[in-house]
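COMPLEX REQUEST
Ligand: nicotinamide-adenine-dinucleotide
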Amino acid sequence: MATLHHLRAGVIGTGFIGPVHVEALRRLGIQVTALCDLPDRVRPAADRLGIPAAYTDYRKLLAAPDVDVVHITAPNRFHCEMALAALAARKHCVCEKPLAMNTRETARIVQTARRAGTVFAVNYNVRFYPAVLQLRRMVERGDLGDIIHVNGSYLQDWLFKPTDYNWRLLPKEGGPLRAVADIGTHWMDTVSFILGAPITRVMADLATWHKTRQRPLGEVQTFAREDQTTRYATYPVKTEDFASVLLEFRNGARGNLAVSQVAAGRKNCIRLEIYGSKQSAWWCSEEPETLCLGRRDEPNAVALRGTPAFGPDAAPFVDYPAGHVEGFPDTFKMLFRAVYRAIAEGNTTAPLFATPEDGHQEVAVCEAILKSHQTRRWTAVRA
Ligand SMILES: NC(=O)c1ccc[n+]([C@@H]2O[C@H](COP(=O)([O-])OP(=O)(O)OC[C@H]3O[C@@H](n4cnc5c(N)ncnc54)[C@H](O)[C@@H]3O)[C@@H](O)[C@H]2O)c1
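STATUS: Structure written out below.
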């Protein structure tokens, strides 16, 4: 079997998530040969992570002969130009979500990627929790019966205070939607992945709790804590702090989703409940190893990953025995293993990782959500 260890990676963006990519790649035995970031950031990051090449222009990283796969972990507004440039340079690519700022951009990436013949993944890592992979197989096999409805949320509190700041708060940097595009799309991608059915219609209500916020003077990294000495400038907020969305899936299932970045105490909580005509299943990322099965007449079951009750279907995506918790960083490792194997083995049919088409679909759902909120109507997703 072709191995993935000869492939070498370059990572563009060294803020919060770039180093998560580096760590996961190294756990797979993949060499990270190059980093790229702004001039004041890239050298310290390269020294900290022990990476030889530090570029300040991503085109130079794309031209490097010792980079086979490019990871785009820069802010959303750069994704389209960087993805198109990576495709033009004939590099394989893992692009962070959301794929780009709007469907004009994502459609261009889809078309270019189809012609390129390289592997291109969108980093919807939640797909690679063992419980999510197990649920997908259970739904596919009919273990839950017909899916009646899905309920859930993605809640965080890192933008709870008016002084919490990040580029995601600004539409020109993060896009016109914030909480929905940033974390809501993780939930929607995960549930569509489990159900094997995309979202076709939405009815949405978006709200902004902090109508104005105070921006620290200077740059702030994702999940950074405030500093007593910081000075602030007030600015109006145009993106939503929280959202409620009703959903229809192509298989007829209905859903409702709550998203918030101002939910005190919820750090990074993605929760989903799937109600079928035979039984239900519940899962939450805060207890990633536990899958709950709900029954009308028999006792409910709490199944731990790695035990027979959980089921064996996610076994190829599990490295540790039961009780040795696998969580957020492991999802990156498993996603990258799938991507790098697809590259090494030349097999790109029906991958488990999100494709450019999936990334485009999620941005199309975001656009339908925004339109629904503005028109106060059910709105079809036009992917
Ligand atoms: N899959 C996940 O769970 C997950 C989690 C967090 C973030 N993300 C995504 O990752 C991306 C980055 O988010 P983050 O939280 O790491 O942001 P961040 O602000 O912490 O880091 C972004 C980095 O990109 C650098 N950068 C900016 N412009 C650049 C350019 N032109 N060239 C090279 N580098 C540049 C910045 O200096 C910064 O170091 C976003 O698209 C976000 O949605 C995904």
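REMARKS: The domain at 128-324+360-375 is CATH 3.30.360.10 (Dihydrodipicolinate Reductase; domain 2). Residues 2 and 344 are 6 Å apart (CA to CA).
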